[in-house]
């Protein structure tokens, strides 16, 4: 794909999802940095004034809650993080409300869980709310609903959430704002690293060391989750710009600042791409070799006859991994049964099941249209 075309897509992007990390919103001593929130609001208000629609995905709830609760550093345990997020989220939105109000803009708080962006019915609801806010010229401010998320079902960082929100609202561009101006070939604190201006695909990421979160100690994912977010968004055909807040206007004006991740030319079916990248498996189905062959080579639906064991506490409609006899995942799919229903069905043919249990049990365990190979 030509650089010029993608730069043009960046400058003309109408709907933009902007993600900002905790490290860019807090002071060195902890607590919200009002000046930085104001600076971000100024940049985003500028985009709105150009006629662009902006969805902000903002981290910072946990970091903002630390000082009021006299917690000296970012806690590791989930319960304390959730308590901090509960205190901090209100402060964060309060600050945004005041900052955007300086530009006559109204903000709307949208707290999402993993389910809201991965389950079809839920993400339609989330889309409707976001769409409505944009129609009413409000700026949606999205964060993970930290207080109800559990350790297993949680993004933790907001980078991947932002990529999924970008896909959800059919954004033209995703902007990842952090405390470094671009992706570097290694930890930017080291002297021997170089700036990476363009990433066209996996080959451009070879040899790059993706390190831990920065010195502020309030971020979570570091560059690993940002690159993963860029992979998800570009896989949906959405270009991604990674840079620091002060450079955002220049980046959106088409200047060569930050790192531009180019969208992949060949777009996979959105729904299957979603299944492979956006979902976390809620369980595992162990397949016998015949079933692996049927699913992987012959692209057939998975039937109960080919399943030898089941792990996990999923319900019908959940994503599950299909694993071979060594435990390696070969595919992911949306399962048609609850975990508790499956043990009595295993190894039995659909004809036998329909005769014994009724016609409702004739259905596949995972339909081939709901399957993606890993
Ligand atoms: N290859 C790399 N290029 C750029 N930054 C990197 C790289 N590896 C690690 N980092 C670190 O990632 C940090 C940003 O991640 P993080 O602290 O999680 O930010 P945020 O709070 O914005 O999500 C940077 O401050 C930088 O120190
Ligand atoms: N939802 C959390 C996000 C946690 C976090 O630190 O994310 P990030 O700064 O994007 O790496 C919060 O608001 O604190």
UniProtKB/TrEMBL annotation:
Family annotation (Gene3D superfamilies): Acetylglutamate kinase-like (3.40.1160.10), PUA domain (2.30.130.10)
Binding positions for ATP per the UniProt entry: 19, 178-179, 220-226
Keywords, alphabetical: Amino-acid biosynthesis, ATP-binding, Cytoplasm, Kinase, Nucleotide-binding, Proline biosynthesis, Transferase
UniProt key word Metal-binding? no
| Gene Ontology CC annotations of this record | cytosol
Q: Does the keyword ATP-binding apply?
A: yes
Q: Which GO terms describe its molecular function?
A: ATP binding; glutamate 5-kinase activity; RNA binding
Q: Which residues bind substrate?
A: 59, 146, 158
Catalytic activity of the protein: L-glutamate + ATP = L-glutamyl 5-phosphate + ADP
Supply the SMART domains for this chain. Answer: PUA
* Predominant location category: cytoplasm
What EC number(s) does its UniProt record assign? 2.7.2.11
What are the PUA domain coordinates in residue numbering?
283-362
The entry's localization annotation reads:
Cytoplasm
Q: What is one GO biological process annotated to this record?
A: L-proline biosynthetic process
**Pathway assigned in UniProt:** Amino-acid biosynthesis; L-proline biosynthesis; L-glutamate 5-semialdehyde from L-glutamate: step 1/2
Matching InterPro entries, A to Z?
AceGlu_kinase-like_sf, Asp/Glu/Uridylate_kinase, G5K_ProB, Glu/AcGlu_kinase, Glu_5kinase, Glu_5kinase/COase_Synthase, Glutamate_5-kinase_CS, PUA
Family of the protein in this entry: Belongs to the glutamate 5-kinase family.
Physiological role: Catalyzes the transfer of a phosphate group to glutamate to form L-glutamate 5-phosphate.
NCBIfam families of this UniProt entry?
A: proB
Name the UniProt record assigns to this protein:
Glutamate 5-kinase
